[in-house]
Amino acid sequence: MRYSRKLAGALYAAPVAVFVLVFFVAPLLLVGRMSASDWPLLAGDLGINMPDNYAGIADNPLFWPAVGFTLKYTGIVVVLLIGLSLLLALIVADRRKGTGFFRTAYFLPTTLGLASASLLFFGFYSPAIGPLDPLLEALGADPVSWLGTPTAALWSTVVLIVWKFAGFFMIILLVGLQSIPPDVYEAARLDGANRWQSFRHVTVPLLRPALGLVLILSVTGSLLAFDQFFILTKGGPDNSTVTVVQLIYREAFQRFDLGAAAAISVVVLAALVVINIGQLRALRKDHQ
Asked: Name one GO cellular component term (predicted).
């Protein structure tokens, strides 16, 4: 009987185990093998060249600018996303007339794919078909090159990402807000706490698990940014908006060097693991 239960459990877990093995473990091992090899895209594996691919990362003229830009973009997006999504969650937390409509409206951009949203904003920013420049001209202002300068390209992309994901993070924080017992706020009010004091000393501490999840998701997603910059800027102008993932793409499919691309991928993966472990430890320490 016990053996049959173990067999049944193994059979239930087998599909998931096969999925993880085929689509995660095997590709990860292959990337590790590529990173240690001379592996042109069109020629295949030409043998181990360890540690040439890793040694060449620092010599890549785009690597450090890409790292700096990715970190800058991540910092801006994370701060704006968390701030705006928390504000939206606080706005729609109370049940009153019209709340359902605004919850749906704020969440709606999340249902659009990132590539589709990027193409939509590319049309908005276009001087040929977009509505923004004609609107500025109607108001007597000069047209703006939304994607033509490094600063404008960065902030135009940030606007897209905040518009796209603020509603999703709002839902996560809204669930966290609704899990806070009303009695806690009532006790704070009886102790003389005003709204700001209640928010600072009650809402924020009890919302830390949800804020931690939002932080991890937004940091990881921003560090792995690709679609939005690939569609909107192609890394321009003058390679000023190249992210680390775009650099991996360029090494693999423009310079046809899978070995170098795999080495950068391994470094990025290691950095993400360290960052996420650090975030989880910090959140556990604050929660204890």
From this structure: plasma membrane
Tokens of 8: 């049944």
Task: State the DSSP code for 59.
Answer: T
Sequence-ordered list of residues with C-beta below 8 angstroms from that of 82, at least 6 positions apart, any chain: 169, 211, 214, 215, 218
User: Which range of residues forms the domain containing residue 118?
Assistant: 63-241
Tokens of 168: 């999703």
**Of residues 18, 52, 14, the one with CA closest to residue 263:** 52
φ and ψ of 40, to 5 deg: -65, 150
pLDDT tens across 137-149, in order? 888 888 889 999 9
Radius of gyration of the chain (CA): 24
258-287 and 244-253 are packed helices; what angle lies between their axes, rounded to 10 degrees? Answer: 160
Give me the number of domains the chain comprises. 1
Q: In whole angstroms, give the CA distance from residue 252 to residue 254.
A: 6
Locate 33 and state its tokens: 């093998």
Residues 244/66, Cβ–Cβ less than 8 Å: yes
Q: Is residue 278 part of a domain?
A: no
Report the CATH number that the domain containing residue 84 is assigned in CATH. Answer: 1.10.3720.10
Range with the largest mean pLDDT of 40-54, 91-105, 246-260: 246-260
Is residue 157 in a domain?
yes
What are the CA-CA distances from residue 196 to residues 84, 94, 202 (Å)? 17, 17, 10
Average confidence (pLDDT) over 223-250? 94
In contact, 125 and 163? CB cutoff 8 Å: no
Give the CA angle between residues 155, 276, 80 to the nearest 5°: 25
Mind listing the pLDDT tens digit for each residue in 148-166? 999 999 999 999 999 999 9
